[in-house]
Amino acid sequence: MLQEKVADFTLRSMKIEILKALNVTDKAHKMNLIGSRSFLGSLENRLSVRFTTENRGLADRAFEQLKADGHIRSTYEGTINPEFWVEITASGRDALRRQCFDDLDTALARISAPLVEMREGAWAAVTSGRPDSLRQASHSARELIDQALKEGAPDNSVKQMPGFVPDRSSESGITRRHRLKYLMSTFRGDVSESQIRIADEACNLVLAVDDRLKALAHSRPVPTVSEVRDSLRSAEIALRRVLLNDNASAN
Question: Model-level pTM?
Answer without folding.
Answer: 0.74
